[in-house]
Amino acid sequence: MSNETDGSIQLEYEIDDRPPWPKSILLGLQHVAVMIVPATAVAFVVAGGVGLDAADTAYIVQMVLLFSGLATVVQAYTVGPVGARLPIVMGSSFTFVGAAITIGVDYGMAAVFGAILVTGFTVEGLIGWQFKRIKPFFPPLVTGLVVVIIGLYLIPVGMDYAAGGAAAEEAGEFGALHHIGLAALVLAIAVGLNMFTAGVTRLLSILAAIGVGYAVAVVAGLVDFSPVGDAAWVAVPSPTRFGFEFEPVAIVVFAFLFLVSAMETVGDMSGVTAAEGRNPTDKEFRGGLFNDGILSSLGSIFSAFPITSFSQNVGIVNFTGVMSRHVVGISGVILAVLGLSPKVGAVVTTIPSAVFGGAVLLMVGMVAASGVRLIVLHTELDRRNMVIVAVSLGLGLGVATTPEALSGLPNAAETFFGEPVIMTALSALLLNTFVPGEQSPLFDAVSSSPAPETDAAAGPSDD
């Protein structure tokens, strides 16, 4: 079951392998455990920012879980041309949070869901449909940099969770010793089990670490079980709960953000297939982008926020060596069940943020590392490519760490260029396209063609 192709990592289970059912369920739960809090946090943050009541907030949380599950299953197994047949867990992204709050306050939630309905399929569907034509513009240097920046700019999110998250900040306990201690415990157990054990304990190292951290939190009295008693057993989806409005400003903003989502998905898909030492195929790219756009538009009918690939779970694939899409399919089923049962979902959301913080820090670091490997395996780091890496990461991390630097721009431009993935991807895309080199779509055909055997044909070195 191991895989030792050039540039790949050692895989315990390859993409079409089916681990035994008990192990598959536990591995699926591990994926759910890592992404469920960040995914549902999007709904909580937007609902709080817009001022929705408890009933509407709970409903949106459940719909995010339901459509995350459905999109994950489609990604693993496909429905017609939709889906990539890759082990990619889907969930609601923080990319859309700021815009959803602003538009929700200014125009109402009907405008938010109307914009998602229009732009989800239109933007990502078009990109997926024409991806074969634009693929030369996204060589390993560009996609690798997107993977790296996704991992790097999520590190502060992991640290925020490790310090206790928003609840701890409101209580004046942000960064308290017991939060940092829980995160450190989870991180230490996950790394220790992965590096110094074998078999099932290594494969389930993250889930085991979260389980131990949760148990310690319960004993220490840091877990509030009251949401479990208050939650209903079943939630029935209610289409057009908030209605639809089609505001031009909202549609333009969400179109930009779906472009970001497409770039993230391209990067995440590249991060997953990097475990096999390769880039995704045209069919995989197209199906994955179709899945993002179509399921996001469909989810908006039931008041779910946009669904996209989850970078933390790309890290799990690389960290554990379990690339089985059937394991991820089980994760999708679990998420869908949680989406129909608020009672079960409430149990999961009682896990303290600090416990997830230790796991998220590890996962986003692995995402960045997988992007580095993708670049190193397929790109010669000569002077040209080093400059592209330096500029792209410099600008991406610059707007991530100092977003106020763009405050003088018009609002739409600030929203667009304030996204670290956009800044990194656009910088890498433009430089790689217009600077001569092997991976440039404008110059690679010339550089790769046989040169005449004359001294005059020899061009200057890139070194």
From TrEMBL:
Coiled-coil intervals: none
UniProt family annotation: Belongs to the nucleobase:cation symporter-2 (NCS2) (TC 2.A.40) family.
Localization annotation: Cell membrane
NCBIfam families xrefs: ncs2, NCS2_1, pbuX
Region (Disordered): 443-463
Transmembrane residue ranges: 32-52, 58-79, 136-156, 176-196, 203-222, 242-260, 327-348, 354-376
GO cellular component: plasma membrane
GO MF terms, alphabetically ordered: xanthine transmembrane transporter activity
Organism: Natronorubrum bangense JCM 10635
Membrane topology: Multi-pass membrane protein
Main localization, broad class: membrane
Classification lineage: Archaea, Methanobacteriati, Methanobacteriota, Stenosarchaea group, Halobacteria
Protein name: Uracil-xanthine permease
Keyword presence, Hydrolase: no
UniProt keywords, alphabetically: Cell membrane, Membrane, Transmembrane, Transmembrane helix, Transport
Domain of life: Archaea
Pfam families, per database record: Xan_ur_permease (PF00860)
